[in-house]
């Protein structure tokens, strides 16, 4: 089956994980994982994080990964078998608004870059309520996502760059500002011991950004930029990339707390 434009592949996620390694390790720390814990990775993708979480528990614990992409889950299961951790991990097809777990079943859960890709019609507060439902009182919830308003590309025409970054955030991500919203959402639910951290993601490889063919095609189609403008954008950034001068950054926001 053909994937839609902008589809994030497992290979892209694996490469992005290398850039976000410090952030990922911090999410694990904030889950306060102990041997025997029952953990959830919501939006687990190809199992990058479920594998690492499984290493932090023993055989009496278990890691659950849920996703709506069957291909991602197949890759996650293959990775678990390769690492001989399949006994500690269950990857399953599930909707985040209807998690297949009992109330107060889990010791901790994490969701990284999940909220930004939820359909715009999805009620984010209900998603958070469902995540909190399945976590025990005192259990940890860890949320990490991008604030795409902070995306910045070194480009000579700053006004044009701002137009492209604004268009990307407003049009090409269903929930581009998810990261900045987590503190308010957890605070409104009276979560305890809320912590906030910001991680700048620095990218020096143009191919590792979503600002190439996808952005260019959508901008032309929506009459945000002309074909000539987008060709100039692509050529100049590709030249910067070739010379090792490409630079892009965006902030990831990490918010965690204890369920009440």
Describe this structure in words.
It is a single chain. With 260 residues, the protein is an alpha/beta fold. The chain has two domains: 9-144, Rossmann fold (3-Layer(aba) Sandwich), CATH 3.40.50.150; 145-174 and 194-253, no CATH class. It is built from nine helices and seven strands. It has helices at 10-19, 21-30, 48-55, 70-82, 124-133, 158-172, 178-188, 213-221, 227-242, and strands spanning 38-42, 62-67, 89-93, 106-112, 135-153, 192-203, 248-258. A seven-stranded mixed sheet has the order 3-2-1-4-5-7-6, sandwiched between helices. Helix 8 runs antiparallel to helix 9 (227-242). The longest helix is centred in the C-terminal third of the chain and has 16 residues, at 227-242. The protein is globular. The model has no long low-confidence stretch (mean pLDDT 95).
Record the SSE blueprint.
Blueprint: H1 10-19, H2 21-30, E1 38-42, H3 48-55, E2 62-67, H4 70-82, E3 89-93, E4 106-112, H5 124-133, E5 135-153, H6 158-172, H7 178-188, E6 192-203, H8 213-221, H9 227-242, E7 248-258
Parallel strand pairs: 1-2, 1-4, 2-3, 4-5
Antiparallel strand pairs: 5-7, 6-7
Helix pairs in contact: 8-9
Quick take:
With 260 residues, the protein is an alpha/beta fold.
What is the ordering of alpha helices and beta strands? HHEHEHEEHEHHEHHE
Number of helical segments with 4 or more residues: 9
Q: In the CATH hierarchy, what is the architecture of the largest domain at level 2?
A: 3-Layer(aba) Sandwich
Adjacency order of strands in the biggest sheet:
3-2-1-4-5-7-6
> Which class of the largest domain in CATH terms?
Alpha Beta
Span from first to last CA? 43 Å
What is the tally of beta strands?
Answer: 7
Structural class determined from secondary elements: alpha/beta
Percent of residues in beta strands? 25-35%
Rg for CA atoms = 19 Å
> What is the fold-level CATH name, i.e. the topology of the largest domain?
Rossmann fold
User: What percent of the residues sit in helical stretches (DSSP H or I)?
Assistant: 25-40%
Please name the fourth-level CATH homologous superfamily of the largest domain.
Vaccinia Virus protein VP39
* Largest sheet descriptor: 7 strands, mixed
Shape: globular
């Amino acid at each position: 089956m053909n994937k839609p434009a902008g589809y994030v592949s497992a290979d892209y996620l694996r490469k992005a994980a290398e850039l976000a390694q410090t952030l990922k390790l911090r999410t694990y720390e904030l889950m306060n994982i102990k041997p025997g814990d029952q953990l959830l990775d919501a939006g687990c993708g190809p199992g990058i994080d479920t594998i690492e979480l499984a290493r932090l528990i023993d055989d009496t614990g278990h890691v659950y990964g849920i996703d709506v992409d069957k291909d991602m889950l197949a890759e996650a299961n293959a990775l678990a078998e390769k690492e001989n951790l399949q006994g500690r991990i269950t990857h399953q097809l599930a909707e985040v608004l209807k998690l297949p777990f009992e109330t107060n079943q889990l010791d901790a859960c994490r969701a990284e870059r999940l909220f930004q890709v939820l359909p715009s019609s999805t009620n984010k507060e209900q998603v958070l309520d469902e995540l909190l439902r399945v976590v025990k009182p005192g259990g940890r919830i860890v949320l990490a996502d991008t604030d795409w308003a902070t995306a910045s590309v070194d480009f000579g025409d700053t006004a044009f760059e701002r137009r492209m970054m604004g268009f990307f955030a407003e049009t090409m991500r269903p929930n581009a500002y998810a990261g900045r919203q987590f503190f308010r959402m957890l605070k409104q639910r009276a979560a305890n011991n809320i912590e906030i951290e910001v991680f700048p993601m620095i990218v020096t490889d143009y191919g590792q950004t979503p600002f190439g063919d996808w952005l260019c095609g959508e901008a032309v189609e929506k009459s945000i930029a002309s074909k000539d403008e987008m060709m100039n954008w692509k050529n100049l950034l590709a030249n910067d990339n070739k010379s090792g001068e490409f630079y892009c950054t965006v902030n990831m926001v990490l918010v965690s707390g204890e369920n009440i």
